[in-house]
Amino acid sequence: MKRLTNLFVSSPHSRAGLTTNQVMRAVCYACLPGVAAQVYFFGWGVMVQIFLCILVALISEAIILTLREKPVRATLADGSAMLTGLLIAVSIPPLAPWWISVIGVSFAIIIVKQLYGGLGFNLFNPAMAGYVVLLISFPVAMTNWMPVQQLMTYDISLLDSIAAVFTDFTQDGYSVTQLRMAVDGITMATPLDNFKTQIDLGLTASEITNSPIYGQYGGTGWEWVNLGYLVGGLLLLKQGVIRWHIPLAVIASLFTLTLISYSITPDLTLTPMATLFSGATMFAAFFIATDPISSSTTIKGRLIFGAIVGALIFMIREWGGYPDGVAFAVLLANLGVPLIDYYTKPTVYGHKGKA
Amino acid sequence: MHSELSLIEQMRSGKLWDIPGGIHPPERKSLSNTSPIDIAPLSPIYYVPIKQHIGNEGDLIVSVGDRVLAGQPLTNPKEGLSLPVHAPTSGLIKDIILHVSAHPSGKPETTVVLESDGENIAIANQPIPDWQNKPNSELIAHLKSMGIAGLGGAGFPTYIKANPTKNVELLIINAVECEPYITADDVLMRHYAQEIIQGIEVLQHMVKPELVVIAIEDNKPEAISAIEKVIVDHKHIEVRVVPTKYPSGGEKQLIQILTGLEVPNQSIPADIGIVMQNIGTCFAIKKAVIDGEALIERVVTITGESISRPQNLWVKLGAPISDLLTHCGLVPEQDQRLIMGGPMMGFNIMDIMMPVVKSTNCILAPSEYLLPSRGVEQACIRCSLCADACPVNLLPQQLLWFSKAKDHDKLEEYNLADCIECGVCSYVCPSQIPLVQYYRTSKVEIKQAKEDKIKSDKAKERFEARQERLERDKQARLQRHKESAEKRKKALEKDNSAKDKIAAALARAKAKKNELAGTTAEVENKTSEANIPEVKTTDTQDRVAAAIARAKAKKQQAALNSDETKPDKTRTDDTKPKDIKAKGTEVVEEKVQTTEPVSAEQAKKDKVAAAIARAKAKKLKEAVEPAVSNVEEKEQTSDPVSAEQVKKDKVAAAIARAKAKKLKETNETEPKTDNTSSESIVPPVSEQMSTDSKTPEQIKKDKVAAAIARAKAKKQKDQGEQK
Amino acid sequence: MYTLLIALGALVALTIIFGAVLGFASVKFKVEADPLVEQIDNLLPQTQCGQCGYPGCKPYAEAIANGDDINKCPPGGEATIKQLADLMGVDAKPLDSAHGEEDVKKVAFIREDECIGCTKCIQACPVDAIMGASKVMHTVIIDECTGCDLCVEPCPVDCIDMVPLNDTNWKWDTLAIPVKNVN
Ligand code: SF4
Ligand code: SF4
Ligand code: SF4
Ligand code: SF4
Fold it and tell me: How far is B279 from B405, CA to CA, in rounded Å?
């Protein structure tokens, strides 16, 4: 005998589209093109970091959930912790020591996410908050980016990467600092970092970008990484996981501001295209700023939020003390979200023309 | 603002607008819209709820055992918003019961149970052949008596809408049918286009719009061509094909799509010169006016993947759903869901004896595979998919937050009241949150809170009025006291012997009381003789209190030992306690007894006797605490003239009862708690007696003390239970 | 030295300007609020039951205004405590169970054939919700009854019951009827 369902359910009696778990996973998958480019240019260290960060993220989430007496398995399955781990992993230097990752990820999960009430309640983007804590606490380790592999004298294998992350030395005994020496014996930095330093030394933009660390548009390798994240982001857009407002607003405002700056002081500014394709621009526009929980929820609000993020990135890169300002820009914009949301409430049906 | 002319001009130009949000769920209409409309077989039993529409139900005009014919009215509508219901077929009224209603709650409602005789004989039709020449009022009365209600969803009485108080420019006939699965209107248009247009003509005559627009979704090409065919020579009727999108069939949404106008908040469409009717209603109007038939059947779509022969049926109102399911062949899967209405706004059918009513357009038995139900609710990730999809531009995620926090002010600020409960937000929510359910609950809670507020305001008013009155009475009483005291003084001066008399009476009363206390204590505390002397010398209130405490403790011990409840024990002892009672220490009893000789009728006497018996029983229960009775007695005897005596008695009695109750309760609890509880009772008692003044504040205080005592007793009981 | 003076001067100027603005705003945008006792009284359920230890809601409102605890009103329950906490700017705390527990809404019902017409309940009722006269049957006006329970105790023949109020507002939550099997 078959029974009628005895659950009382309020309408609607169906649903469609991705579930939250699927959304989180979709974002992880969409990172793959960018991650692939990173691995190609920066070696296996990226994969080591990803593995390490996701593991730490899951463990710290599980611990907190147990302490808070929340369902552990079901919540871990929503993939949000995994995503946070992944986002931090791709943001930190590939050969950063292991404790950097552990501190950053556990801070992000435990303090920024769970102490604010868990999924859906965090005011700040956990990944970026974790990243910023690391950047402030360990500025040296956090800016230790490898030059792209193709410019390096030493080839780093997977085992080398693992050894470097956990012991600070490769199998052959090179330290990470030694590895960063390029052919000409000059310590390499990220293109944005390098640019900033050189400008301060009084060089002009065109002189600086002649260096081999700059490619056609952005930094060598970095342009491909950005392209990878752009592709992933477009996939997300197509799937309906993210909406176009925030990425477009970020890119548009960053581009416009750089263009203005470039046309006024071409000697002191990277070209607008270079700006878009270096650093973490695309990653920020499609993967960080679009984090639903900490970004604005109204349509107008999303446009404003994106524009603020873009503008802040520009300002920090141009005038700030850090070469790339994505994390700070996003966190600062997060702060404004409640206000933005409040003032961009859409007009409800039938309330037109009323105050 | 649109000028009056431009609205119609715009309409004629055929321009369409869009609504924000909306979704495109799988339609699955082809399941049921291919076959013509069949007629459902006669059910053996019909359940006709007397309320099938918005407004008041009518008064029943049939009774059990009556024979009725099809179309015969069963109720007589009341004044105001009210409609009759009619017998769906001929037969016998078997019963009038509370039967599960066609409502999400299934709350039982008054229902006429009609046993069909299988003949289906109808009463004579009452058509109005020359309706073109009839005044509106007559047609409206006719629509009312035929029980015509909106067949679209809410079931709003049609005669109200057909009688607009304002000038109507545009009459919209809603044939959008945007809910998936449902095809009732679709097939009705395909097969009864001519009749529908006739119904629209009647409406045109009544409402007098400049233009009639029939809105049909573009997924019903057959229906569109059928209607277009019959309106060729109607200059003022147009068909407007609207793009398929849910919920474009909502009244406000459809107006927005067709006119670009929004019905202002807290207004109705008629305020902007628009009236909307459902297409099925037009058919019912035609039936009522031109054919003279009451609304006793409608088209119902029976569909879903678990139905083996999905189709549209003419179903007589009141037919139980089980019969329809059997007719169409329900093959249930595990945990089969049955839904009345569509998948977006319908509700679970929890009982298949639920009847079909005027607003039932669909019975849906979907499969879990094709219409997956919502999974486990997760945290809102503020993705705002819901906000993007909401057709009225609400922010569902914020509403959810405030609903959970029960923040009614914020909910109103974020316009919860404008939510049309379309279900779009829940449909798209990745976290599978039953948003609409939260909103519905909140809406009811807000309504409840408002009702409570009205009630508490009323209570406050009454309370204050009463306080004022009591104050007035008190002043008046004081005045009287003063006067009578003066009088007494004068009288005393005249005759000293009166004073002696009073003194003698007081002395007697005191002696009696002591004796009484002694006896009672004796009766109650056979085990402790030592108590008696002390009780006898109850000069100071402290001693009384102490005695009470001891007596109580003893009582408890005794009760626990003998494992008997106290009242029983005292009753079985002998008649002494009753004798004591009979001496008339209690006001009530005395009062009641004095009524005895006065009352003439025996019946009354019996009643009084019963009351006395009850009162005695109650007293007896209280007699477990003899000393408290003493207190009462003392108060009575020592202050016989006081007008406030009654009140004080009441307070004292309340305390006594509270104590007695508590004592009983503590006896029921573990012995551990006994001592502490009996001790804790003492201080209030002595306090009570020592502060025996007559100020109104005092009375208030007494009352409060009694209330606290009650609360404490309750708490102790609870604690006892917990232990 | 000079810079110090400038800084000091600027600070003083700012202080004066902001002070003026604030002062102006407080005068200009002053909100006319009800007296506190009124506001508190409006939040209390007006059951007038006295369980809080005061003879009615208004006296309790006065007591709260004078600093009494906000968690003494069982009929209002957690909801009222929360509102009071918001109003008074203090933390909400659980209901003080010494005063009773939160219960479903009830109204008094007099079993009329047992009523002896003693008028005691009439005197007890804080909102005059009982009708009747001496020695004739009494009855409760359900719409006016606040469910305060005060009339139950005084009744000498125990003919008053507190019956749960039939709640007409269904809250979309419970199953009203059992589910039946099909086929
Ligand atoms: S149910 Fe209410 S909140 Fe949800 S989409 Fe419909 S109108 Fe908007
Ligand atoms: S769709 Fe669901 S998860 Fe997304 S914002 Fe709305 S309620 Fe939250
Ligand atoms: S306990 Fe009773 S009298 Fe006191 S405030 Fe609450 S409802 Fe009013
Ligand atoms: S009738 Fe009884 S319960 Fe109701 S308000 Fe009056 S005293 Fe209270």
Answer: 42
CATH class of B376-494: mainly alpha
Nearest one of B592, B628, B438, B657 to B520, comparing CA atoms: B628
- Residue B455: closest CA among C106, C55, C146, C51: C146
Strand pairing category for B211-217 and B237-242: parallel
Q: Is the CB–ligand 1 distance for residue B392 below 6 Å?
A: yes
Q: Domains plus CATH for chain C?
A: 36-99 (1.10.15.40), 104-166 (3.30.70.20)
What gap in Å lies between CA C60 and CA C57, rounded to an integer? 5
Atom of ligand 1 nearest to the CA of B423: 1
Cβ pair A349:B432 closer than 8 A: no
The A residues from 4 to 33 touching C (CB cutoff 8 Å) are: 4-6, 8, 10
Nearest atom in ligand 3 to the alpha carbon of residue C49 is 2
**What does the longest C-alpha to C-alpha distance in chain C come to?**
98
The pLDDT of residue B567: 42
A351 vs B: CB within 8 A = yes
Nearest-CA distance C84 → chain B (Å): 14
pLDDT in tens, B626-673: 444 444 444 444 444 444 555 555 555 555 555 555 555 555 444 443
- Condensed to tens digits (0 to 9), the pLDDT of residues C110-167 reads 888 888 888 888 888 888 888 888 877 788 888 888 888 888 888 888 888 888 876 5
Q: What is the pLDDT of residue B24?
A: 92
Q: How far apart are CA B487 and CA A130, in angstroms?
A: 92
Q: Count CB neighbours of C164 within 10 A.
A: 11
Q: Which pair of structure tokens corresponds to residue C133?
A: 């006269």
How much distance in Å is there from the Cα of B396 to the middle of ligand 1? 7
Structure tokens at B196: 């529908």
Q: Distance (Å) from the C-alpha of residue A348 to the closest C-alpha of chain B? A: 5
DSSP code at position B239: E
Token pair of B408 as six digits? 């009614």
β-pairing verdict for B82-83 and B170-175: unpaired
Bridge pairing between strands C130-131 and B362-364: unpaired
Sketch the domain layout of chain A as residue ranges: 20-188, 189-343
Min Cα–Cα distance to chain A from C114, Å: 43
Helix axis angle, A98-106 relative to A126-137, nearest 10°? 130
Q: For residue A1, list chain C residues with Cβ-Cβ distance below 8 A.
A: 181, 183
Topology of the domain comprising B1-21+143-292: Rossmann fold (3.40.50)
Question: In ligand 2, which atom is closest to the CA atom of B384?
Answer: 5
Query: Given the DSSP bridges, would you call strands C106-110 and B311-316 parallel, antiparallel or unpaired?
Result: unpaired
Pick from B349-353, B418-422, B697-701: least confident? B697-701
Chain C residues with CB under 8 Å of A9 CB are none
Q: Give the C-alpha separation, B283 to B124, whole Å.
A: 20
CB nearest B711 (choices: C41, C51, C143) = C51
What is the whole-number distance in angstroms between the Cα of residue C72 and the centre of ligand 3?
Answer: 8
Ligand 3 proximity of C75 Cβ (cutoff 6 Å):
yes
Nearest to C128 among B330, B466, B712 (CB): B466
ipTM of the assembly?
A: 0.86
> Where would I find the H helices in A92-156?
98-106, 126-137, 139-142
Per-residue pLDDT tens for B681-719? 333 433 444 444 445 556 566 666 666 666 666 566 555
Domain with CATH 3.40.50.11540 in chain B: 1-21+143-292
Q: What is the pLDDT of residues B380-418, one digit of tens each?
A: 998 889 999 999 999 999 999 999 888 888 999 999 999
* Structure confidence at residue B327 (pLDDT): 92
- Tell me if C172 and A10 make a contact (CB, 8 A cut-off): yes
Chains that touch C (3 or more CB pairs under 8 A): A, B
pTM value surpassing 0.80 = no
B616: chain C residues, CB-CB within 8 Å: none
